[in-house]
């Protein structure tokens, strides 16, 4: 027989607070300058066939050795005049402080920079010049992390060193989280979000803000390979991405939020700036991440730069678009720091925000 129901009303169960969606700011920048269009044409003519050859090679120890050599070759490159760097040793990996031109000795406020390179190449040398530009634009030093990459560690372990560096800033340097902005390009943009998500998982406070340049955030290539930008991206990296993902995450589930940050619960992440070229293959990842961040209540701005190549900021003063983007990234960092002292309003980056 059914049991008699109690006449006493049961108290309602407490429900977890629901994130309130925030407006998604999409800031479209056009039109591409003649110089940037010339760069894109050069990429299509020179880099595209080379990437196609690389994609046809086996992913083996020789391939990883060639990838590792890239950062050693870049050791000859000089950072901007007036840049000061100092190595910081960590157990198993390294990092360096980069004080861009005009940036003083104070490390009260810092950028934690995570370089790109497809999770297998590049490092402090390849990115020192660009990191110095970001440091100068923001007026603060950057801690650039030389995290261990495949094959030294599995793909899913690369974030460990990034979190170690973040924890070091918090606990050893005594840097308040509101005085840290985490920034990265391409694979480093992936690690920017992975670091914030792991920090949340480990009970660490969130940084003041995140900035990701042309990040890859969904390891499932289905959407990217079906996107119109497969034909428009001047580097045509689709085949290379397929080979790379097979080697790096073939043993993992691309739908796992710990593998693809765009699929994670993004609630509670700090204000975020995403930048991408309108025709690059990874644009759709930035677009989807921006949409999901806004739905999770995270203040987010997506800057879409007309027909710019992947991580176009690397061209520095050569391109007007990269000059403007670097200046605006610097402004975003500065505003992230001042928000802690003001009313908490997210930075507004409009078309005329750069000086």
TrEMBL record:
<dbReference type="Pfam" id="PF07859">
    <property type="entry name" value="Abhydrolase_3"/>
</dbReference>
<dbReference type="GO" id="GO:0006508">
    <property type="term" value="P:proteolysis"/>
</dbReference>
<keyword id="KW-0378">Hydrolase</keyword>
<comment type="similarity">
    <text>Belongs to the 'GDXG' lipolytic enzyme family.</text>
</comment>
<dbReference type="GO" id="GO:0004806">
    <property type="term" value="F:triacylglycerol lipase activity"/>
</dbReference>
<dbReference type="GO" id="GO:0004252">
    <property type="term" value="F:serine-type endopeptidase activity"/>
</dbReference>
<feature type="domain" description="Alpha/beta hydrolase fold-3">
    <location>
        <begin position="111"/>
        <end position="313"/>
    </location>
</feature>
<dbReference type="InterPro" id="IPR029058">
    <property type="entry name" value="AB_hydrolase_fold"/>
</dbReference>
<dbReference type="InterPro" id="IPR002471">
    <property type="entry name" value="Pept_S9_AS"/>
</dbReference>
<dbReference type="InterPro" id="IPR050300">
    <property type="entry name" value="GDXG_lipolytic_enzyme"/>
</dbReference>
<dbReference type="InterPro" id="IPR013094">
    <property type="entry name" value="AB_hydrolase_3"/>
</dbReference>
<feature type="region of interest" description="Disordered">
    <location>
        <begin position="1"/>
        <end position="24"/>
    </location>
</feature>
<protein>
    <submittedName>
        <fullName>Acetyl esterase</fullName>
        <ecNumber>3.1.1.-</ecNumber>
    </submittedName>
</protein>
<feature type="compositionally biased region" description="Low complexity">
    <location>
        <begin position="1"/>
        <end position="12"/>
    </location>
</feature>
């Amino acid at each position: 027989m059914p049991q008699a129901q109690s006449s006493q009303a049961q108290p309602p169960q407490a429900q977890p607070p629901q994130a309130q969606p925030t407006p998604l700011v999409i800031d479209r920048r056009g039109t591409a300058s003649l110089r940037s269009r010339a760069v894109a044409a050069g990429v299509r003519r020179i880099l595209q066939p080379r990437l196609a050859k690389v994609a046809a090679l086996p992913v083996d120890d020789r391939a990883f050795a060639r990838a590792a050599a890239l950062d050693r070759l870049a050791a000859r490159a000089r950072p901007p005049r007036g840049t000061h760097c100092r190595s910081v040793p960590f157990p198993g990996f390294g990092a360096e402080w980069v004080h861009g031109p005009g940036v003083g000795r104070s490390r009260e406020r810092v950028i934690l920079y995570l370089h790109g390179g497809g999770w297998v190449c590049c490092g402090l040398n390849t990115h020192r010049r660009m990191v110095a530009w970001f440091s100068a634009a923001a007026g603060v030093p950057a801690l650039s992390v030389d995290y261990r990459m495949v094959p030294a560690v599995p793909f899913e372990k690369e974030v460990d060193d990034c979190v170690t560096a973040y924890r070091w800033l918090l606990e050893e340097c005594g840097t308040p989280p509101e005085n840290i902005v985490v920034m990265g390009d391409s694979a480093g943009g992936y690690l920017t979000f992975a670091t914030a998500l792991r920090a949340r998982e480990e009970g660490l406070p969130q940084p003041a803000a995140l900035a990701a340049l042309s990040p890859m955030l969904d390891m499932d290539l289905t959407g990217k390979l079906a996107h119109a930008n497969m034909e428009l991206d001047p580097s045509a990296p689709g085949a290379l991405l397929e080979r790379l993902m097979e080697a790096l995450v073939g043993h993992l589930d691309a739908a796992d939020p710990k593998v693809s940050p765009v699929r994670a619960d993004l609630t509670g992440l700090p204000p975020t700036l995403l930048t991408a070229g309108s025709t690059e293959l990874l644009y759709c990842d930035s677009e989807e991440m921006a949409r999901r961040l806004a739905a999770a209540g995270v203040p987010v701005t997506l800057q879409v730069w007309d027909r710019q190549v992947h991580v176009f900021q690397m061209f520095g003063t050569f391109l007007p678009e990269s000059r403007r983007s670097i200046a605006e990234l610097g402004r975003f960092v500065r505003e992230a720091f001042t928000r802690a002292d003001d009313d908490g309003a997210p930075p507004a980056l409009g078309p005329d925000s750069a000086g």
